Amino acid sequence: MSKKSTRSSKPKPDPDSGTQSTVTALKKVLYISEKLLPDDDQRLRLDRFYHPGQGKDALFVTHPDGQIMELLEYAEPRRSWLIHSEICSNGRVYMTMPLDATLLALHHLRKHCTQRAMSLENIAVHEANTSRLLTQFVSPDGLGRVADVKVSGDLTFYKYNQERTLAWLALKTRQVAETLKKKQIHCGHSAQSQNFVRSDKLAEDTVINEMNYTRMACDIVGRYLDADLHDQLVGYLHIPSEIQAIVEEKTAAQKRKSNVGQEDSSRKKIKLNNHDSDASSRLMISGLLDGEDVKDSIISPPSVEPLKERSMTAKEKALAKGAKGTKSIASFFKAK
């Protein structure tokens, strides 16, 4: 369940008129789950951390219990909000999305801990706000999945491990792909409405486009990674390029059509043979065909001989000779 919250300032007295007036502050609409709203003595906080996918700092909402959420902005032109009796010209919508802070920490580990192991305190010295991110929102277990951990006394050192990182990111990608399947989200190259697609065809396309789910899940995870690391993840998962995937889909579609055509032709042949067998059986029952001729009639249809002119008998010849020169009775009723 989400909750919409707005904020405005309290009424203040006007020194000139002696009456109270309301000073309207900048209002923004934010949708957030009620479960994430803290108690009265705690507050959510906006922090700026480096976003690897955007290549710059971005806003994140942090919770007092250590949760971190990305602040997403949805904006359309010529949009406003009607809040109570006021019109808010800022029609943007802000939403929060929880994420694993280890994805944000990968950028700093790859930047500082590739050649040597370093503690989190030494990493945070080089960049602002990094200390708060690494020490308060990134769990040690999460860092252990992407780095080699060395402990010396009270200090813990981390060194970036590429193999562990790619294996962990691949696991994340598969989890996202499974979620997309459960929610029945279409992940093809073209738009598709589930309301106008038959269930059997939808199930067939889901099996064929298995790689499309992996590709979309990889793109979702890659939104929080550096560009080169995203490319490494694509190669690790053996995801083909979109052009190659489109060509493979067209080839598979043509193959399915040819198979369907062959099946239809084979069905027609079977139906024709059954029809010939039934016709031969009926002829044999009626006595027009002998049992020995049944096999030949099934293999090839019987040839049709031309009709021969029947010879006239002597009586018919005499009647025809006597009728020469006479007229038929119908000729008398014809109009002259």
- Structural class by secondary-structure content: alpha+beta
Q: Determine the N-to-C terminus distance.
A: 102 Å
Low-confidence stretches: 7-15, 19-23
Q: What form results from the Cα inertia axes?
A: elongated
Main sheet attributes: strand count, strand direction, barrel closure: 6 strands, mixed
**C-alpha-based Rg, rounded:** 42 Å
The counted number of beta strands is 12
**Mean pLDDT, nearest integer?**
76
User: Helix-strand pattern, N to C?
Assistant: EEEEEEEEEEHHHHEEHHHHHHH
Order of neighbouring strands in the sheet with most strands: 1-4-10-7-6-5
Number of contiguous helices = 11
* Helix content range: 40-55%
Strand content: 15-25%
Overview of the molecule:
It is a single chain. The protein has a 6-stranded mixed sheet with strand order 1-4-10-7-6-5, with no helix packed on it. By secondary structure, the chain is an alpha+beta fold. Helix content is 43%, strand content 17%. Helix 5 (162-182) packs across helix 7 and helix 7 (210-222) runs antiparallel to helix 8. A hairpin with a 5-residue loop joins strand 6 and strand 7. The longest helix is centred in the last third of the chain and has 45 residues, at 242-286. The protein has 11 helices and 12 strands.
